[in-house]
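dumping the sequnces here before i forget
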Amino acid sequence: MFKYIVKRILLAIVTIWAVATLTFFLMNLVPGGPFLSEKAISPQAQAALEAKYGLDKPMSQRYVNYMTGALHGDFGDSLKQRGRTVMSIISMKFPVSARVGGISVLVALILGIPLGSIAALKRGKPADSVISVIATCGIAVPSFVICTLLMYFFGVKLGLLPTMGLESAKHYVMPVIALSFYPTAYIMRLMRSSMLDVLGQDYMRTAKAKGLAGGKILFKHALRNAILPVVTYVGPMLAYTITGSFVVEKIFVIPGLGGEFIKAINGRDYTLIMGTTIFLATLVIVMNVVVDIIYKLVDPRIKLK
Amino acid sequence: MKENPLSFQLKLKPEDFLPATEEEKQSQIIMRESVSFWKDGMRRLRRNKVAMVSLVVIIVVMIFSFIVPAFYPYTYKEQIKGANSLAPMEYSAEEQARIDAGEKVFPHVFGTDKMGRDYAIRVMMGSRISLLVGLVATCIILIIGSAYGSIAAFFGGWVDLVMMRIVDIIYTIPDILLIVLLSMSLKAPLNNLATKPGFHWLSVVGENLISIFVVFALLYWVGMARMVRSQVLMLKESEYVTAARALGVANGRIIKKHLLTNCIGTLIVTTTLQIPSSIFTESFLSFLGLGVAVPLPSLGSLASDALNGINTYPYLLFIPALLISLIILSFNLLGDGLRDAFDPKLKN
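..and the predicted 3d for all of it:
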């Protein structure tokens, strides 16, 4: 177990380092430097700006500087939002995204697991067909389509829900539906197939033969085993939620990190792009490691080497 | 000899040892055609109604996006004067006058956008771009993934170890973030390249589209590589591989001729299921403005453009949005059908 955890953590560190390095060099590939798009500035001002941000130093020096800074949580200053560091922007915007994303993940789990189990238990019945159709369609619909359709029907046509901002509980409804739609459908499918698998196992028959109560069989024997594949999906789901938040936050004008990232891309705010990329990538990678370790812990069938 | 009625002995007579007649010989020949892997799979696929309907939908969409635009009276970048923001089947004042004068005017089936471009042809071109991205990207993934996976599995040992660690690292990198970065940083070098003679096509296709392909080539093959590796690991222990080795067949030929051909079922299924996910990613990027270059439309960018006029012209949004969902859904269902038909593990 210990060896496995160490191995996973080392691999994660290498991956984070690879992402950070790749990000740094890709951003430095952009010719002309970040100040080229500004209105005509004198060579002196240009030189001063470059000196201020350390851009006059050689590439290797800048790489070492940036990496040591990043290790201390310092991603430099934002190029477009004057006087604010990248870290302060991230720490201000990320909680908003995390709240929306966290609620979406919870909604996906709370809806997906029971519905998937119901589909498996009622196999071949109308309930199963309805859930399967919803799940199949849910996987095929991109998040921006859901967002725009929700916005049109509930926001514009019926006027039931506010279309932008994040002030009240009502504001959360549409972004959360849009973000949790795909993961819910995916979990339903995953849960259905793993539940069917478990229901066909010998120990289920044994449990029934012993005369255990239906509820006890369902929760103690079936659900606990069938839920394991869903645990492995939590990592990818988080990555999906983060990338999905780019679209959702853009459409619903939510002041979160996803929207900020898109703004930074359109405004060519290089330091903010780099900082956000490294931050989000680290988040996803760390969560993946945590989920993998939890998976090994909760599933006693997996032999630990 | 008197026969015991309870005896189990065969009661043979001398006639039983006569040579068989022609007729009897004929009856021994198996008349039924042998069922090949392809025939078997196709037969099962044809019985799957959902998959066949999806296949028909995909073919219809392909006809509309690749063949119909050639005969269509409008082009995707032609701005028709006075025909801005028409509703579906509506004519502009000028066109109405021409109709009244007895001329025939092709209707704007889906109306026009606010720049006066016929929307039907834009949607067709958009789905052409989406399909092209899906197909080309998947080809790239197929080639790289199958080569990488089979090489890692075939040579095994430390080669496998190093190659699979690289796959592990790439697998955990959030792809969208890197796509965004790559499409930004590849833009300038590709722009430079496009001005050089012989590379003009680059600017037609668009730098963003090329960088999407580059990203697919760099990142998305890992799933395919893992799939192929696990198959080849199993197959390389087979007798025919040992036989081929004993005959002195070169490694590359064993991989191509014996190993990859034998996991063709897995390759087909994984490839088909990869297409919708490529289309998904492309539409996502186009929606964020990182996809194809204007004036070339893509279903994602059409939906993104239509978002501003959602109050007045909702159909401009619904058409591309529903079409992209339909395309992804059809490919998904076809992929599922192919898996049921061709994956030997599920056979019987």
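Residues 65 and 124 of chain B are 5 Å apart (CA to CA).
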